[in-house]
What we know:
5-stranded mixed sheet; alpha+beta; 14% strand; Ubiquitin-like (UB roll); 2 domains; DNA polymerase, domain 1
Amino acid sequence: MPGKPPAKTAISTTINGQSYDFLCEPRQSLLEVLRDVLQLTGAKEGCNNGNCGACTVLLDGEPVNSCIVLAVEIADRELTTIEGIAQQGHLHPIQQCFLEGAALQCGICTPGFIVAAKALLDKKPNPSEEEIRFALAGNLCRCTGYDKIVRAVQAAAKRIQADGTVVATPSPQQQAQQQQ
Length: 180
């Protein structure tokens, strides 16, 4: 006799600046819910065990692999997916620089790299090459290699600074250090 299906949990959260209310099973990953319940299919399933970064999203501004985060963990939190990176129909400078620099091929890893790069540039607007490589170390690409990706992030950082497109928000720790 089959067991009873798990009870669903009601979740309220903010995704890409919009309020969402949905039901999910406590065992469902955030990636499953994003793709199958909410139809936000930008985050890709590459490994389903947190090793490839194709499913990277920002949870309260921090990059996480959505395949290993339970959907119930995002209740009352802020989530940004690749769908929320572009604004008002215009590509974000990171996205534009990926295109211009040919920093993508098959596209499976691209959303994760762009989201991880955004997390880095939001915190550190002028990162060194080493800092970029470190921030993107959780993301794998089997097509392009990493040099074009790193160059695209460097170009985006310069463009953002020149255009004033994105203003980095200091963390509470950085704000405290600046006041000392």
